[in-house]
UniProtKB/TrEMBL annotation:
Species of origin: Acinetobacter venetianus
InterPro entries noted in UniProt: YcaO-like_dom (IPR003776)
Signal peptide, first to last residue: none
YcaO domain ranges (all copies): 61-402
Pfam families reported in the protein's UniProt record: YcaO
PROSITE patterns hit by this protein: YCAO (PS51664)
PANTHER family: RIBOSOMAL PROTEIN S12 METHYLTHIOTRANSFERASE ACCESSORY FACTOR YCAO
Entry protein name: YcaO-like family protein
Length: 402
């Protein structure tokens, strides 16, 4: 087991790069380049280019070290390529929504997979489905392909869930990929509730360990401000969010944020910080088509509105009304000595909190890599661009109204 700065792998980042290079051309990845020098911050970020990508053509990778960022850029592009229904090994078929509903086990409802706001399904309507496996019970189940393919095969007017990258992950082994996917699902679930009610805790940088303090100092010494906050959650797994602020609201990247979840708290925190750095450089690089609309909206704001939102965001995240010492955050690092033990920790946390079904499809698997897409019923993923709400978040919203 290799404990990297921002992940746990069964092999080194250098070895991951070597294996990725072997299949990247076949998947349409034409170039992986170091874009670190575009920002004065100097923290490693790489970009991979896949011109034929249907969802994105540019992917980014983050890390504390250059090889970690390069491996990340390769693997995200490979994930997207393999999740494309034209490349995926996952087969699809058609059935009625009623057949899908009838196939669900006791205690699981179709709405547990988070419909988009104002969307519903007609039981007699036809739906494209794939067969996913519950990795906890071994049972096969039919589920709408929207939850697994990227892009979706479902016509836009018939979309109920909308395709998402949440739970799409790669690994040097199937178990490693599964761990990355589930950690992301936990992260996005926690962040969904944070959007409804921010109960996060400010982490004093003076309390950080030396490796995290080094990241903090690199940001601060560049003339930027870094804020790290901890998000308590029902999984009792460390989740952090980080914001990097410029001195003024003038630029589109004046505030960049990132999140991270992992049973090892130092990895969760490092992921949040490096993702904020990556988000900042992604905006500077300008290669991501999905950021164009956001940039246009920001550009259309008046200088006073930009300053208002910037000041509000900065005031909120640097607030010390809720504070927590980094050392007070519990984690299971003492019980983690292998990839298998890491998974045991995660699985136990999920089961304790009532998440007893984990549905997985394998888009690609070889002796070098595995690419998976995982969904967990009742886990939330609410984003401004795709407003999806499940029963837990809906209940939270109703309580907020009282």
């Amino acid at each position: 087991m290799h404990i990297l700065n921002s992940s746990v792998r069964v092999t080194s980042a250098v070895d991951t790069i070597r294996k990725a290079e072997k299949i990247s051309r076949k998947l349409g990845i034409t170039r992986v380049t170091d874009i670190t020098r575009l920002d004065f911050l100097g923290m490693p970020v790489f970009a991979s280019i896949r011109p034929t990508g249907k969802v994105l053509c540019v992917h980014n990778g983050k890390g504390v070290l250059a090889e970690e960022a390069k491996a990340g850029a390769y693997m995200e592009a490979i994930e997207f390529a393999c999740a494309d229904p034209e490349n995926s090994s996952v087969k699809w078929d058609k059935a009625s929504y009623q057949e899908i509903i009838d196939d669900l086990p006791d205690g699981v409802k179709l709405t547990d997979f988070c419909f988009r706001v104002n969307r519903s399904c007609n039981p007699i309507s036809e739906v494209i489905y794939v067969t996913a496996k519950d990795i906890l019970t071994g049972d096969d189940i039919k589920l709408p392909e929207e939850l697994f393919f990227l892009p979706s095969l479902t016509p836009k007017e018939d979309i109920v869930f909308g395709f998402s990258t949440n739970g799409l992950a790669s690994g040097n082994t199937l178990l490693e990929a599964t761990i990355h996917a589930v950690c992301e699902l936990i992260e996005r679930d926690t962040m969904s509730f944070d959007k409804v009610e921010d109960k996060s805790y400010f982490i004093d940088p003076l309390d950080l360990t030396d490796d995290l303090k080094s990241l903090y100092e690199k940001v601060e010494n560049s003339g930027l401000s870094l804020c790290l906050r901890y998000l308590k959650n029902e999984f009792d797994i460390p989740v952090f969010k980080a914001y990097i602020f410029e001195k003024s609201s003038e630029n589109y990247c004046s505030a960049a944020h990132g999140c991270g979840a992992h049973p090892i708290k130092s990895i969760a925190a490092a992921r949040a910080i490096t993702e904020a750095i990556q988000s900042r450089l992604t905006a500077i690089h300008g290669g991501r088509d999905d950021l164009v609309d956001q940039y246009i909206k920001y550009s259309n704001l008046s200088p006073s509105d930009k300053e208002y939102y910037y000041d509000k965001l900065k005031l909120l995240h640097f607030s010390k009304d809720n504070s927590l010492k980094y050392q007070e955050i519990k984690c299971e690092s003492g019980n983690i000595f292998s990839i298998e033990s890491l998974w045991m920790v995660i699985e136990k946390k999920l089961k304790i909190n009532g998440f007893k079904n984990i549905y997985r499809v394998i888009h690609y698997e070889s002796s070098d890599f595995a690419i998976v897409k995982i969904v967990i019923p009742k886990m939330e993923h609410f984003e401004a661009y795709a407003k999806r709400i499940g029963p837990r978040l809906w209940e939270k919203l109703q309580l907020k109204k009282l």
